[in-house]
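Need tokens for this chain, all 273 residues.
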Amino acid sequence: GLPTTSATMQKYMRLLLALAAAVAAEPLYDFSSSALVELTDDNFETLVVGDATSLWVVEFYADWCGHCKQFAPGFAKAAGNLKGIVKFGAVNAEKASKTASLYGVNGYPTVKVLMPEVTRNPYTGKLGKVAKDYGGPRTARGVVDYATSLLPSELVAAVTDGGLESFLSEGALPKALLLGSKPAVSPLLKSLALALKGRLQLGYAHGEAAPETATALGVDGFPRLAVVPAGKGAAESISYTGEMKAEQLLAWLTSHAGPPLPPTDGGGGGGGG
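Here are the structure tokens for all 273 residues:
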């Protein structure tokens, strides 16, 4: 046989180990303990593309990619910070090559924000969504700011003193009004309006600037949330007494909302709301 020195053998073993490590890169995310959803070729269309009531932030990554490793803690933190407000998913682009190529991914990490509206291609029958490229800083704060800026605000009606009756009488849906302590509508309220689009009309009033509205709903402090059943007036409002947390709020509002809409067919959410 060939003469081999122990130094050469060690070098050879080190090379083999390095190769093995490269092939079996540590999984980047532990999906069991994070707010991130593991997305694959099998579930992407159902979970993301067919979901007309959520904004989705999706990262395409590879386990071996250095930039992905640096970005992973920030991306996972952004998902945790916006839990219940914006949905976050991650696609291992090497395993889900079909989805990665469909979205034109050619480098990692690539982050795309998929807007809520679902359309159906009249020729192929396939569902589709507008995907926006995220080009901001690879930090939790950067991702959070960009994602929340894309939550649709037109689903929340602005209510001021003198405008409560017209808000309550418009359309046939039950109404929910949040009297808040700040002038601006929060990302949480925008996401609740999106989740219940076509089932419940949400409104927002800046509490201190709308004392008559507060009195009409029997509210004496802010933030306060009240639901008024369809066709009823302020006197029949029902006040929310739970925590101002996404999950609890959604459950309570859903219990007062209209019936669920049929599954999305790309018709823009059932009759132009």
